[in-house]
Design a protein that fits this description.
single chain; about 400 residues; alpha/beta; Aspartate Aminotransferase, domain 1; Aspartate Aminotransferase, domain 2; 2 domains; seven-stranded mixed β-sheet; three-stranded antiparallel β-sheet; 12 strands
Length: about 400
């Protein structure tokens, strides 16, 4: 077996299951799961219908590059959503469909990391801390060393790029960016994204921007920018060294569809396509047909965003009486300081209120500054509105007692 497998940390939800093991919560309280970021809004019915109508295509092998129609729909969505110049995204050279961003983020690291004769050892993959766990696992299995950039209240939940030593940058082959952030909800300003690209050009690494929450934001006048916007602001119309990842899971509430795309630097897209041709990452044709329709329609994404906005407006006043819950800029998570042991808070909340949240320390790694997730929990606003409000009141009751004890 690949010895790097032994370096992987148990996935957060495996650890959470062990934490809750042998606990029997109150039977009179229905369970409310707010630990995993799994959208529960009804998907657009016409997406389901498109799947049904195209089931006959299951008799054909799909091309890894995807259908021209799907790539065109993705390219035009990028231009609409991020106000890019018309024709800025060449669909057949700059877009590649993928089976959800998770597998594509992992695959990209395997494709681009080169540990054969590095000019600077160890080869590093940089990522925010806390982070989506795929970033770390992909780096380790590619033979690279993860380097964690803490996101804390002190730096506004945005990695301080100026604080990274030059030696680390010289060993960097890939920088992960997540905006809006998971779990912090922080939106990266375009100036910060431009700085990341300038560093990438100087030190010759790739920037991979995980933008799967980009359509979930709470200020309609200021939608999050893309790394592609930063490229154009720098005068780069070829998106050099930039790769962005998008998904229908959150935007369209179809996590089970496993549908997304990667776009950016055409030279990187071409090489990644070659890798995926061997990897076997082709998207089924019925999924492609349904996905093309979803990317072509913005109204359902706006309606979906409003549902999360309603939850945020209903839940924040309840929780802010007892916890320092900050309003996120995007995504659907609350990332709150609970003033104590996040594992114990999670375990006792489940035991007394039958609500499941996720310990923040499970999403981060210890650095010289400590574990930036310790003492926090992530609350996912994915259940229906009534369940979110009910959970908020249960958390409030528990947190009131918790604060007194702590």
């Amino acid at each position: 077996m690949n010895p790097a497998l032994a370096t992987l940390t148990a996935y957060p939800f495996e650890r959470l299951a062990l934490l809750k093991h042998n606990i029997t919560p109150p039977r009179e309280l229905p369970h409310i799961a707010m630990s995993i970021g799994e959208p529960q809004h009804p998907p657009p019915p016409w997406v389901i219908e498109a799947l049904r109508e195209n089931l006959g295509a299951l008799g054909s092998y799909p091309a890894t590059a995807g259908t021209p129609a799907l790539r065109e729909a993705c390219a035009r969505w990028l231009e609409r959503r991020f106000a890019l110049p018309p024709g800025a995204v060449a669909a057949q050279q700059m877009v590649l469909p993928v089976n959800g961003t998770r597998e594509a983020l992992f695959a990209l690291v395997q494709a681009v990391v080169d540990t054969r004769t590095p000019a600077v050892a160890p080869v590093r993959v940089l990522m925010p801390n806390p982070f989506y766990q795929i970033y770390e696992g992909a780096a380790l299995l590619a033979g690279a060393t993860p380097h964690f950039l803490d996101t804390t209240p002190a730096n506004g939940y945005l990695p301080d790029l100026d604080a990274v030593p030059e030696e680390i940058w010289r060993g960097c082959q890939l920088l992960f960016v997540c905006s809006p952030g998971n779990p912090t909800g922080k939106v990266a300003p375009i100036g910060w994204l431009m700085q990341a690209l300038e560093l990438a050009e100087h030190y010759e690494f790739i920037v991979a921007a995980d933008e799967c929450y980009t359509d979930l934001y709470f200020d309609e006048s200021a939608p999050p920018a893309s790394l592609l916007n930063a490229c154009i602001a720098r005068g780069d119309l070829t998106f050099r060294r930039a790769m962005v990842f998008h998904s229908l899971s959150k935007r369209s509430s179809v996590p089970g569809l496993r549908s997304g795309f990667v776009a950016g630097d055409p030279a990187l897209i071409a090489s990644f396509l070659r890798y995926r041709t061997y990897q076997g990452g082709a998207m089924p044709l019925p999924t492609q047909a349904a996905s093309a329709l979803a990317w072509a329609d913005d109204a359902h994404a706006t309606a979906n965003r409003r549902l999360y906005q309603e939850k945020l407006e209903a839940v924040l006043p309840v929780l802010q009486e007892v916890l320092p819950v900050e309003r996120p800029e995007g995504a659907f998570y609350l990332w709150t300081d609970i003033g104590g042991d996040d594992e114990r808070f999670t375990r006792e909340l489940f035991a007394t209120q039958n609500v499941t949240v996720l310990p923040g320390s499970y999403l981060a790694r210890a650095t010289p500054g400590g574990n930036p997730g310790a003492g926090r929990v992530r609350i996912s606003l994915v259940p229906p509105l009534a369940a979110c409000v009910e959970a908020a009141w249960r958390i409030r009751r528990f947190a009131t007692e918790w604060t007194r004890r702590e």
